[in-house]
Amino acid sequence: MRLGTALVLSAPSGAGKTTLVKKLIQEFPNFGFSISFTTRAPREGEVDGRDYRFTTKEDFLQRRDRGEFAEWAMVHGNCYGTPLAPLREMLQQGRDVLFDIDVQGAAQLRLSLPHARLVFILPPSMQELERRLRSRGTDAEDVIQVRLANARAEMREARWFDDIVLNDRLDRAYADLRAAYLAATLAPSLHTSLIDSLIG
Ligand code: 5GP
Question: Ligand 1: which residue has its CA nearest to atom 24?
């Protein structure tokens, strides 16, 4: 049995990451999903413990100080963090884990999980990104403006990821994401027990 791989997906808000993630989970239902802690308020339809673990800033900072996060970052004025314990357990059990985190968190995971595969999802254009952010209709205008300003800065960081996926057409973008994931599962470091057993 191999170890689990960590597939890290980053994208500016509105790049269409959520749709791609849903397709990936549909095809590979055994994916473990890292549920982040966040201090932001739930959006309509979001469920605590499924989408995020919603918490207060005070509780978040206590957890951070106790070393409970594999990474954490301040994004758009709110704190987000990946809890370490469930992550370790899933990888040890051979479950692949999907991360939906920002570029600062991805940089930290690159250090703490050297075999993680880091994939950056790009929107087709800045105009399209803005249109998608507005059509979502869940965020206030000032939130949209902050996200647009941050999107350019985040996209500059795409250079040091392992892969980029341009989300212009869903079927093609998904094919690229799927290829990146399957390639990640072939890393020799995940298969040391197989190699050892073959050698005898
Ligand atoms: P949203 O508030 O739209 O759900 O997420 C905002 C941003 O926070 C997204 O870029 C998302 O990838 C990022 N994010 C979500 N969870 C985490 C986390 O645990 N750690 C980090 N570093 N970023 C996260």
Answer: 101
